[in-house]
Fold this sequence. Notes:
The chain is of the alpha+beta class. The protein has 3 helices and 6 strands. Strands 1, 2, 3, 4, 5 and 6 form a 6-stranded antiparallel beta sheet that branches. The longest helix has 17 residues, at 3-19. The radius of gyration is 17 Å and the shape is globular.
Amino acid sequence: MNQKIQSLIVIALSLFLFQCTGTRPDSLGIKSERLGDCPKTPNCVSSFADPNDKEHYRSPVPYKKPLKDAYLVLKGKLENSPRTKIIQENPNYINAEFTSRIMRYVDDVEFYFDEKNKLLHFRSASRLGKSDFGVNRNRIETILKDLEI
């Protein structure tokens, strides 16, 4: 293969992979003491979804440690997760991006420590596509498993 064709292939692949990242939504963050709603598509899981919505809902996790300690435990777990980048931090909120290994799809994951009710809320959603084959739900379950907060 000549150099020109190789260069075109690299450029085409780069553009394709860049398109898989999508754009960070403006709707992220805490608004009125809650995280944003899930879209109608099945590629999102949230503790703020309607409990009757089995596709999107997962119950929040109670925490017993002081907020600062619980926060540091969660942040440590996120920092040790592969292909994860923490985007925003506040004393009771973490927003992270998880990138898939091959296609480089980006999912937005948020955690909100509700200090009043001592609950850890979360939302994990794909930026692109419709189905995620359960990736967001599995991610949340993995993060929450054995989380000692």
